[in-house]
Amino acid sequence: MNNLNQPLSLKNGKVIKNRIFKGAMSEQITKGNRPDLAYAELYGAWANGGAGVLVTGNVMVDYTALGSADDVVIEDERDLDLLKAWAKAGTANDTVLLMQINHPGKQSPKDLSPVPVAPSSVALGGAVAGFFNKPRALSENEILDLIKRFAKAAHVAEKAGFSGVQIHAAHGYLISQFLSPIHNVRDDKWGGSLENRMRFLVEVYRAMRAATSSDFIIAVKLNSADFQKGGFSEEESVQVVECLVKEGIDLVEISGGNYEAPAMLDGVKESTKKREAYFLDYAQKVRSVCTVPLVITGGFRSQTAMSEAVASGDLDMVGLAKPFALLPDLPNRIFGGTYQTLTTPQPRLGVAKLDKMLGSMVEMNWYMHQMKLISQGRQPNPNKSAWGIFFAMLVAQGKGAFRRERA
User: What molecular function does GO assign, one term (predicted)?
Assistant: First the structure.
């Protein structure tokens, strides 16, 4: 049997049927902040496509704090029936479905957040600075309220039928901001030492655990590092994983980067690119303290690289994202012997100035377009032109099409 098709047991007794993990992608397939039935169609396709774990795109905990205009938001049970439909579809075929729960902090575009909140009043820098307003620092009471909001979202997710949740503590969003010594310069118990900077994440986990049953999965997505001088480091990341494992976390997914340093491939050695697993070196460092299933997301495209990574023992599951927007049945193809590798397109307009400014946004919308096709019961269209996406963005959103969203 292909080692990617081997089951994996969690400490709470839940079994993941195979080692293929669909990482989170921003779906943005419907307007507004409700989990429209299109989500059920999309996740039903992925569940029937054979993945062991599916992770949703960001689900936010506050209608006033959005990473994108059309983020799904959970503050209460108002959309419980729609969430139940999503959960039923996404858990079909013995699939584990995790809702990714998040708060953007200061990574909320200008037109969505006139005054965003963050651990400290530190503005984003670099090329993205102009897209985001300077935040104000959260008060102690606001921090405690946010912890309750994360727990409430987890409670509602369980009630709706999701297998579990994933705490998004990566990519420069709020929890990642708390972890970073660059973005968190507080001098109270929520800042300073690593113990204090990780307090918000630990308290979110504890509140979620208290609000859900013992067999409900709680996972975390964490940066291996921020790739910024003076930022959250690999050594600190390993210590955070060790702490969370002791607390009882069920599963750890590793990624990296943030808005200010988003290109995880910058400076990556050719040998690492060929190996495909961008964070495998980190996995080898964290393995000794991570005694729960470890997922590495970033770079996997070939079955050979996936199988070799699992066989190494350095990780337990391989995380993929973009390939699922083009091949929703990718796992079934692997297990059926009809898949070897996939080159994921990097759609560009072919105009240097435009591509420099808008290339990443066009690409993100190109992949969201593929997911929207799947959510409509149609096949992905890998031949869709970047210009078609560009004009569709203009028509649908006007200037808002070019806000910086997602990392």
Answer: oxidoreductase activity
Which of 34, 37, 47 has its CA nearest to residue 76? 34
Burial bucket for residue 235 (CB in 10 Å: 0-12, 13-18, 19+) = exposed
Every domain range in the chain assigned CATH 3.20.20.70 = 3-344
CA-CA distances (angstroms) from residue 78 to 11, 29, 39, 320? 32, 20, 17, 32
**Dist CA 165 CA 209 (whole Å):** 10
Interstrand relation of 317-320 and 20-22 (parallel, antiparallel or unpaired): parallel
Whole-number Å distance between alpha carbons of 79 and 132:
30
Through-space distance between the first and last CA atoms of the chain, rounded to whole angstroms: 36
> How many Å apart are CA 212 and CA 271, to the nearest integer?
43
pTM equals 0.94
**Residue-wise pLDDT tens digits, 184-221:** 999 999 999 999 999 999 999 999 999 999 999 999 99
Distance between CA atoms of 249 and 235, rounded to whole angstroms? 19
Give backbone dihedrals phi and psi of 256, rounded to 5 degrees, phi first.
Answer: -175, 160
Beta bridge pairs of residue 101: 59, 167
Report DSSP state, residue 345: P
Distance CA 407, CA 396 (A): 22
Looking at the domain covering 3-344, what would its CATH class be?
A: alpha beta
